[in-house]
Write a structure and sequence with these properties.
Distance between the termini: 40 Å
Number of helices: 0
Helix content: under 10%
Number of strands: 11
Radius of gyration: 14 Å
């Protein structure tokens, strides 16, 4: 069982920045694809960004060049740096850990709210 705890959400004005953190329970990054997803009210959960064990990253087109996913292996933590935030980035953001080989080993954090408002 993998535990994921997010933090760092909040209220920010358009054009502002936030950094989300996700602390994992143990050294899992070599065996899991780590990712951030988000879900706005009335919409489906969508991929924001992922990072693989070797460091390869992937981003949704809507956040490319504005968001950066990274990780700190020593502290078992991944981050999502969000710059130039827009109204449409408002959502609950969820950390995800998906095992490389076993599809049933797929874990979610509790979510952290990001609200972009003037």
């Amino acid at each position: 069982q993998v535990q994921l705890v997010e933090s760092g959400g909040g209220l920010v004005q358009p054009g502002g920045s936030l950094r989300l953190s996700c602390a994992a329970s143990g050294s899992i990054f070599s065996r899991y694809i780590m990712g951030w997803y988000r879900q706005a009210p009335g919409k489906q959960r969508e991929l924001v960004a992922t990072i693989k064990g070797g460091g390869t990253t992937n981003y949704a087109d809507s956040v490319k060049d504005r968001f950066t996913i990274s990780r700190d292996n020593a502290n078992n933590t991944i981050y999502l740096q969000m710059n130039n935030l827009k109204f449409e980035d408002t959502a609950a953001y969820y950390c995800n850990a998906r095992h490389l080989l076993t599809v049933t080993m797929n874990y979610w954090g509790q979510g952290t709210q990001v609200t972009v408002s003037s």
